[in-house]
Amino acid sequence: MTRSNKKTRLTGEQALKQAFESTDHTPLLDNLGVDLSDEYLCLALTHRSFANENGALPNNERLEFLGDAVLGLSIAAKLYELHPDRPESDISKMRASIVSRYGLADVAREINLGPHILLGKGEKLTDGGDKDSILADTTEALLGAIYRQYGFEIAREVILRLFAAKIDGASARNRTLDWKTTLQEALAVAKLPMAVYSDERTGPDHDLTFYVTATVGKTEVGYGQGPNKKSAEQQAARQACELVQSNPGAIKV
User: Where is the RNase III domain (predicted)?
Assistant: First the structure.
């Protein structure tokens, strides 16, 4: 009797189960502050690229649609309460900045969501887990999953906690301050060369810490650390801005 040496190809459901269970999602749930069933958590984390590569599995887009609605209402109601004297045009802009792709992606990075997202091979190769669009959509899907499992009040509590800093600092601007852009503008005014960012990382793939140094010419001007490269770069750029604006003469080129 001849034995086949061919490896058995995983079915879509088997591939999904294997991918989902390959990462410890406990840190993510701790950051969210609620437990989610494996069914809802897995669905919320399944990007369409993974679903399409594995036999058209269900993806997180329906939960994303639901989470968007719950998020929008929660933030709008809170801003309405906090700013009774502001016109609709102001609070509308505040809400738009908080629930924008950039605002959602910021929150996603704060809870280190990227390593948990189930992505297809193409998205993995292009660092899809750190793309603003994918991070934002998956955050909304998680909020939709929380709503489905626990109802509106619990979902609202989670949203107001995760977005508390953005709500407190809300303004009529359309997006949060980009410190890298601000630094670039400050360097141009001071007639200094552009900043160069170098990074190191430590820890397992699902719980990385990034350390970034910003250098202008021969001078280290800023340092930052965080759960992803972008947030660490923003910290380094913010620190560098303070130096450039207060003492540009200290920078040796």
Answer: 31-151
